[in-house]
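Action item from last week, closing it out:
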Amino acid sequence: MHGATERLSPYTNAPLDLEGRGIRLVELQSSSSSDTIRCHLRSYALPPDGPSYIALSYQWGPCERYANIELNGMPFTVGRSLWTFLHQMRLHRVFKTFWIDAICIDQANVEERNHQVGMMRHIYLNAASVSIWLGEVEEDTLVGEAMKIMAPRNLRSGQTLDNIAHWKRWTTREIEAFQAFCEHKYWSRVWIIQEVALA
């Protein structure tokens, strides 16, 4: 009689020591935009012992299974918001190392989930940067217009978003755009203070 075999998953070769302070990081791999999105998942220590990474702050969206990516050579289903983020990063050739909760934490493992949630403050605090993903935004919407105004290429030399109001004359449309941006559902998330304030 054969013994029970362990269920293989993308997490099998990237174990976490739940007694320690390790995390997993996902590396987006180069591929054609028509190919399946490919990622490598590995276990690391938090910096400074581990590598630099970008932490993603985003809204999961509806809990539907949207599309498969390839994670450690295996099919792995992600939601629409996360798939579009990875797709956009690939289109812009931003092949970086990320911490993304839906991928880096085995969501089916309650003990691991609780362990990593307890480390969340340290995960965002130790990130090289935090990227905010609002999801798919059409350019002709108010939120899309606000994003174009805030794009770095539209700022004068030496100007930042902190002092943009000192030199820019706002049109009614631009004010409405920023209001729509500030009312985006992303900003109502409970975790927003921890994720962004610690960046």
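Closing note: The longest helix spans residues 80-91.
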